[in-house]
Write a structure and sequence with these properties.
Chain lengths: ~350, ~350
Amino acid sequence: MKNKRMGRQTVVLPSSPSIVGFAAVGGKLESQGPLADSFDLLEQDSMFGQKTWEQGESTMQKKALETALSKAGLRKNQLDYVFAGDLLNQCIGSAFSLRDSNLPFYGLYSACSTMGEGLSLAAMLIDSGFAQHAAAMTSSHFCTAERQYRMPVPYGSQRPPSAQWTATAAGCTILAASGGGPHITHVTCGKIVDKGINDVSNMGAAMAPAAYDTLSAFFRDTKTAPDDYDLIITGDLGKLGREIVLDFFRKDGVELGDRYQDCGMLLYDLKKQDMHCGASGCGCSAAVLNAHLLPRMHSGKWKKILFAPTGALLSPTSSFQGESIPGICHAVCICSDPLN
Amino acid sequence: MKNKRMGRQTVVLPSSPSIVGFAAVGGKLESQGPLADSFDLLEQDSMFGQKTWEQGESTMQKKALETALSKAGLRKNQLDYVFAGDLLNQCIGSAFSLRDSNLPFYGLYSACSTMGEGLSLAAMLIDSGFAQHAAAMTSSHFCTAERQYRMPVPYGSQRPPSAQWTATAAGCTILAASGGGPHITHVTCGKIVDKGINDVSNMGAAMAPAAYDTLSAFFRDTKTAPDDYDLIITGDLGKLGREIVLDFFRKDGVELGDRYQDCGMLLYDLKKQDMHCGASGCGCSAAVLNAHLLPRMHSGKWKKILFAPTGALLSPTSSFQGESIPGICHAVCICSDPLN
């Protein structure tokens, strides 16, 4: 078997699986943000027509999957695998969204880096002939996350300036063995990095070292430099986390500049929408990928991007027990033309 | 790329990745059960020398990984991937066990079927040249599960006869591109099956339809019959769930008989240990695989087995909201000699 490994953490996908469908669904605040026009569906009702927020979150995923399939021109039973996960305890957002789908399902948990993990595994299984079509999907919901991780929503508890706002959004990307692109050419699997940050209102700082670690591994393994990419985008580090990543690279003598963006800073208007450090949640990078990045790759704005969503692998229990916050980041390289 | 798919849900692994290391760690009740002699490590202290049960659960995983690596004769940095997950909210059992490992990590959530999902993905990535070595690992802990899913442990709440007992155990299996076996030859990815069971004290009934669904898909896809296998083993359905699976197959005119076992019935002595319907938890099937099944494949007792752990994709929140319990089952075929 041909070795597809490049260095310690990165693999090359010789067949460059193609992205053939993608969709993003968002809520009220997302409909007031700068990416509103790019969403496939925006809903003002936080319940998404259901009886509970959790059912609403599952409904977002269902709609994202249906829309992505429709845009890909595929029937549901053409999907060989769905990779999905979310922030809810026991990932019920994904399990209940797929309960009646009759689709082969591998459940993931990688916090807000789930979109990166799902894309990675879907692309690798397609590249190796285990699948013709596979979907990667995730979601988050402000109200389900808030009451699970922090306070009951009606308390209206105050948030420190370093806090981020959990996106109410879902994204689904469908990959295929062949298609017109964009293509996934490389995948870098993250390691857990924990620098001892234990402030749950400062997730950007907790996850930034993992983003730096995975991006550095990608450049080292592929023997490329940031300048080789039109866009390098982490998520969801927010304003503070992005600054920290810029600083880490600066210490290595690398100035990332505006070529480096973060999904958490793009979903909302940080000045007008009072979101402090930006957006967070699995749905943040999933929505930015599917509503913003992929359409603009299609239109030719970017030809080669590095998508690197970040996750904080804590739970309320681990924080109550005084543990620091482990971070992780999974990266995929997406190219319009894999030969270029 | 060669198509490796067989039917709707099953794939064949042409290179048959080899299991080169395996280990099981258990707690006090596991040390009193019929498999006690087969565990690599048994610990009487439910904290495993730590300050919290959650840290204890992570410690079990750490020890399972270390022991499996040692038995495989591998250094930690030879592992290309670890696939791990557990039952704790946000899967902190796995995240904290791997926090300092410096290992590439893909997090999974598939409830008690996690060992099946991890083995599947590890084997597929090795078969396709993305990895030389990969580990699949999971755990559960009676005390962390009990207080998260049910009642604070000191309440000593009564359990109905259909209930199972969450195993305090961890298992780790290490796969490699080459080795003397046993080998993973086929993988069947499960679909969610939900027949409307909402009794959280009867997980066997909730998961049995998923087990039947995945096993049926495996036999259909591979054009084989139960008689072609020395052992077909689900987990963790327990006594009642196993009866339901037997019934489902009986309706198809297939008598599985004693060839069909369930991990939930093997970990404890159901008569002496008063465990009602048997063991459950991610650690149950992981421990039975690594302490019981793999050693006996090595010794020649079985040559070809079908390992099909089952998971219940509920959460306390979904149950409080009146939802039924979605089940899933992921199967892998393990052979001593893949050419036979």
